[in-house]
C-alpha cells in the first residue's frame, strides 16, 4: 500500500469540520493594517479569511473559516494579529479516510 492518497484536495477539505465559537480566537488590530505596505495576510491565509476593502480602505477579516495553521500571525509585519487556538470543543476537526 503506497503512502499516497487518492483523494483530491477538494475531497480532503470536505472531510474538515469546523465548530464555530461565538468568541473569536483571532483578534486583528485593524488600525495597524492601513500602514502595512505588503499585507501578506491577504495571500498567506489558505482559507482566504483576509481581504482588503478598497472602498472602506480597511481589512475585512473572518475568523469563522480559520483552519488554525497560524501562518497569519507569523507573517504579519505589523504584529497586528493576536492568534490563539479556539476554546476546547471548538475549531477545526480533521477527519481522515
Descriptive report:
- There is one protein chain.
- The protein has 97 residues and is α+β, with helices and mostly antiparallel strands.
- The protein has a domain at 23-87: Alpha-Beta Plaits (2-Layer Sandwich), CATH 3.30.70.
- It has 3 helices and 6 strands, in the order αββαββαββ.
- The longest helix has 5 residues, at 9-13.
- The model has no long low-confidence stretch (mean pLDDT 89).
Structural descriptors:
97 residues, alpha+beta, Alpha-Beta Plaits, two-stranded antiparallel ribbon, 3 helices, globular
Beta-strand fraction estimate: 15-25%
**Architecture of the domain at 23-87, according to CATH?**
2-Layer Sandwich
Radius of gyration: 16 Å
Secondary structural class: alpha+beta
Which bin fits the share of residues in helices?
10-25%
* Secondary structure tally, helices: 3
What is the CATH class of the domain at 23-87? Alpha Beta
What's the quaternary structure here? single chain
State the end-to-end distance: 14 Å
Q: What is the global morphology?
A: globular
Output the helix-strand order.
HEEHEEHEE
Remind me, CATH topology of the domain at 23-87?
Alpha-Beta Plaits
Task: Give the arrangement of secondary structure elements.
Elements: H1 9-13, E1 16-19, E2 26-28, H2 41-44, E3 50-53, E4 58-61, H3 71-75, E5 81-83, E6 91-94
Antiparallel strand pairs: 1-6, 2-5, 3-4
Give a summary of the structure in a few sentences:
By secondary structure, the protein is α+β, with helices and mostly antiparallel strands. Helix content is 14%, strand content 23%.
